Amino acid sequence: MCVKCYHATITIRPSIKYRYHEHLLCFIEEYSHHIAHCKASDNYCQKSVASDDLHHSTNSLFLCLNCDSKIHFICGPLPSTIEHECHMHPLILVDSVVETNSDNYYCDVCEFERNPRIRVYYYEEYRYVAHPHCVISEILKVLKGDLGGVKLKVIGQDFWEEPEEEWDMSSSLTLLDLLSSNDLTGPEKMYLSLWFKWDESSKGEEDSEVEVVDEDIDEITRYPFFNQQEFTSFFFDDFDRFWQNEKLEVKCSELSVKIVRVQGYSIPVTLAPVLQTLLHKYGDISSDSEWTPAMKSVCFFFLCKLINTMHTTRFADITKNLLREWYYYLTFVSQGGKFRIDFLMRQQELVTGAFVGVQLARLEAEIPTKLNKKIGKLQQDIAKLQQDIANLEAKEDIFNKRFEYSSNPEFIKDSLREGAKLKWKTVGQLLF
Question: Is 337 helix (H, G, I), strand (E, B) or coil?
Answer without folding.
Answer: helix
